[in-house]
Amino acid sequence: MISDFFIARPVLANVLAILMIVIGGVAMFALPVAQYPDVVPPTVQVTTRYPGASARTLVDTVALPIEQQVNGVEGMIYMQSYSGADGSYSLTVTFKIGADLDIAQVLVQNRVSAALSSLPQAVQAQGVIVQKNSTAILQIVTLTSPDARYDSLYLANYATIKLKDEIARLPGVGNVVVFGAGQYSMRVWLDPNKMRVWLDPNKMQARGLMPQDVIEALRQQSTQVTAGQIGAPPAPRGQTFQ
């Protein structure tokens, strides 16, 4: 038995006990101590949107170029992606425990920048966001209207305007997501059977127009143009308003 071995050799047992005490004392001052140690692998998230694209189109035109570039980035363990039917795409890159998350974000950003030229023009216009992300949600806050005075759209808009930026500035907060907040948009059908206000495809074909022409016309009508200023200096005497 092991106990018999050390009972028969008390000097060796005492030396080993003293050695363990010395090692423990050195480790007590040398080992890092943290209130919240890093026990979860850090992650970097890449997100973008391709308006009007299906999940299959996202995989072929967005996910493939980005993941081919990001794959094999230094310190990466694995990565997983999601392509939604609403045109949203997200890629989560998981790194080794202890990896510098700031350096990891820069490395992923450089890889994504190399893939930008291969992405569709609509995706480039939307932009590709690379940010540090935690796999654990720190807190969930719910807004309610006890007397039902405000609906969900009002509360979501209030959270976006009043709370999101304030919470994002708190120390340790990486990202704030407002659930239920929908962005206003306009959808135009080219099929006359879909809605009352429609564009007849036959008339478009007769005039040699394509769907891209409709998109360009809508974009031109939505442009904000600076109108200049009236009454700006040098102004004549008596001009009191600008």
General description of the model:
Helix content is 40%, strand content 12%. It is of the alpha+beta class and 242 residues long. A four-stranded antiparallel β-sheet has the order 2-3-1-4. Helix 3 crosses helix 4 (101-115). The longest helix is centred in the first third of the chain and has 21 residues, at 10-30. The chain is elongated and about 105 Å long.
Keywords summarizing the entry:
242 residues; 12% strand; 8 helices; alpha+beta; 4-stranded antiparallel sheet
What layout of secondary structure does this protein have?
Blueprint: H1 2-7, H2 10-30, E1 43-49, H3 55-70, E2 76-83, E3 88-95, H4 101-115, H5 121-126, E4 129-133, H6 152-168, H7 201-206, H8 211-221
Antiparallel strand pairs: 1-3, 1-4, 2-3
Helix pairs in contact: 3-4
